[in-house]
């Protein structure tokens, strides 16, 4: 076969992919020759990736164009809701979409609106195999070598990116994470590939805190990550009684600068649990659990466990989501209380209510009182305020903001229940929002993710009047570290 058999479809794939991205992107793509060359290399690699499965040039070119079309649509939606382009770590979440379609604003695979197009796509590919002949060299031996050689070459190219020489080259192109800039320069595909290789080539060393002798001051430490929580008065909603109690009784409270807007719970979660700023995580900042799988020496749970606390994680949702069951065991949690432990608990909308979670936290604290350790550290992640916000979620309440305000009132009740339940103990209670809600009319500010709210209570001791102190999520984690580490 002539070279035109391969290069004409490839040229169509490269020019078509650029046109798709340029039309869909909110940023003007860079036209500098070096940037265009890197962008084209990304498109070419995607085309070759699909080509190794079919050995049909036009099918591979069409698959490249379809890939870019899908990525561009998802990228546009993600920018609108979260304010961030698609990134390589998002691919790790694809397996969760069919298992939890409601969380990704899509439909189950069994729904005809999803199953129909998928079946049509399969039929189209099968028909294409019949219409377009395979572009393989003549002779069985040459064909086998070609079929085996291309996947090996692609794998070798990826491994070359992990060598010292490859990493030096990648560091010149992607010196540090700057997602919006890099996507505008190099396109989605090349940026995703480059960021993935930079992440795999990073040193995962983490600081190990010094161990101290003695005992922590608290017998109970409860940290609750409240799903999509911020003071509803900031959204023109009603004043929560819980916010008045926070301002009157908390040791400190204020705005919490979080790493993401409207999603990516794990980023705030990781920052608070470890005290590590996203900037310190390099290219692992986009999904810290994917990057480290919970191997964190500074984890609050590990520190608490070393100081003699029983460590408990409470989360009324599936164990497999974000791979939390495995990650949280590695973070240092001895017991996991998850969705199966909330059988019979009331759901408010699609998810277990926040008040039920607060009751379970207090039950775990009471149980810990009679344990051999005598100290309890509980980290909890709530679910009631999780999206999507759409008609049918609550009976008679269809407007998204009204749904959110209905749920956040229960969050306030849960906070008050925790305050009342822990006030008689020598205890620390921290509550904080992981990110702003992904409401249709609450777009991410151009300056970065919208701050949430937090509060820190110190029960059973005299203290100064409540103070407003604005923090980052990582700074809050460092403050909490003092509650679970022994005092000299």
Topology, element by element:
Elements (H helix, E strand, L loop, with lengths): L3 H21 L8 H22 L2 H26 L13 H4 L12 H20 L8 H21 L3 H10 L5 H22 L19 E7 L14 H9 L2 E6 L7 H10 L13 H5 L7 H7 L3 E5 L9 H8 L3 E3 L9 E2 L2 E2 L1 H16 L6 E6 L18 H23 L4 E7 L18 E7 L8 E2 L2 E2 H12 L4
Parallel strand pairs: 1-7, 1-8, 2-10, 2-11, 3-4, 3-7
Antiparallel strand pairs: 2-9, 5-6, 8-9
Helix pairs in contact: 1-2, 1-3, 2-3, 2-6, 2-8, 9-15, 10-16, 12-16, 14-15
Describe this structure in words.
It is a multi-pass membrane protein. Strands 1, 2, 3, 4, 7, 8, 9, 10 and 11 form a nine-stranded mixed beta sheet that branches. A two-stranded antiparallel ribbon has the order 5-6. The chain has two domains: 199 residues, no CATH class; 265 residues, 3-Layer(aba) Sandwich (Alkaline Phosphatase, subunit A), CATH 3.40.720. 48% of the residues lie in helices and 10% in strands. It has 16 helices and eleven strands. With 488 residues, it is of the alpha/beta class. The radius of gyration is 26 Å and the shape is elongated.
